[in-house]
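name: query_chain
kind: protein
chains: 1
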Amino acid sequence: MNREPLFLEVDFDQRRKEGEYICGDSFLTRKTPGENRVVSVLSDGLGSGVKANILSSMTATMALRFVEENMEFLHSAEIMMDALPVCRVRQISYATFTIVDSMLHGWTKIIEMDSPECFLVRNGDIVPLRRRSISSSRWKDRTIRLSEAYTLPQDRLILLSDGVTQAGMGSRAHPLGWRDSGVREFVLRVVRSSPGISARQLSHRVVEETLLHEPHGKPGDDMTCAVMFFRSPRELLILSGPPFDARRDAEFAEIFDHFNGKRVICGGTTADIVARELKRTISMDLRSARKGYPPESRMEGADLVTEGILTLTGTCRILEHMQEVRPDDPASRLYELLMESDRITFVVGTRINEAHQDPSLPVELEIRRNIVRNLARLLEERHLKETSVSYI
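structure:
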C-alpha cells in the first residue's frame, strides 16, 4: 500500500528509584537520514543506580547500532549479552530491552526480551500483536519475542519498564502491582478522553499515575514510559526578521497568511510588517512582561507574537541545556509550540538590525541566522523534528 509517510512523535518520561541519583533505565531513539525510519530502544538494567544505568546504556546503544545496520538480530542479541558485565551477586549479565524499528510508510518491527509487553493503541482500543519466540542456543534462559504491525495514522505504541507495571507490588492496596492490565486500562481512558494527546503528555500522565500506586508516592524502582505516536505532521511557521528588500514585505506577509498550521512571529519589526501588509491590528499585552523579556503582543492569525532575538536565544537555551520551562515566559511558550509540532518552517528576514551589532550587548545576542540554525539543529538531533530554513 502506497501512502505519504507518517510523522512519528517519540517521547518518554521516567523516574529513578527513590534514594538513587541516576536512573537504571535507558531510552534512545534515532531517525535514519533519508530512510523515513526511526529506531527506538528501551532497556532496563539489572538492579538500580549506576550499575543498572551502565547495563541499560550499553544495551540500548548496541541495539540501536545493530538494528540500524540491519544485522541479523539473534546474532546481535548474543553479542550484547556476551558484552554485558556480570553481576557479582547474581552471576548474570542482564538487561531487558524493547526495540522498535519503524518504517514510516510501512511495517513496524518490535523485538522484546524479558520486558513488559509493549502494546498498540488504535481508535481507542488495544490491537493484539502476534508474537513469535526465538531462543539462543548459547543463552537458553533468554527468550526473544518478535512481532510486526502495519501502522496507521493516530496509532500509538506504548513501551514500559517493569517499574511501571510492578508499581506498588507487595503493598496492601496493590499486592500484585499495577500490572499490565492496569496500565492499559489507564492509557485507554486517557486516549479516549483526549484523542489528540501528545506522546510527551501521555508518557508523563502514565508515570504520574504510576507514582500514585507506590506507597507514599515514591518510586520503588526505576520507571519509564515511552510513547510512539504515528500521525500526520503538525506544522509550525516561525517568522523572524524583516526582509532584506522592503519591496518583498507583501510576499513576506502572504507567507504568514497562507500557512496551514500554527504561526509565530518573533520580532517587533517583523510583526509590524505583517500587520501593516495584512491590515491587522497589533495590541501589546503589558501583563505578559517577564524578567528578561519584553511583553508579548496579540494579532489575528498568530499563535504567538514576541520580541525576536531574546526569545529565540532563550528557547535555544532551553533546548540545549533542558532548563526549566516556565509557562508564562515567551521563550518557554515558543518551546511548547515547538514540542507540539513536527515540521517547523523558519522564514528569516536578512535585514540587519543595527541594535544587535552593539558590542555592549550580551554575547548571546548572536546574529539571528546563527540562532535559527542552532534551533533547527537541536530540534532535528534531539527531538526528531523536521525543519526547513529559508531566507528572504
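note: Residues 235-391 form one domain.
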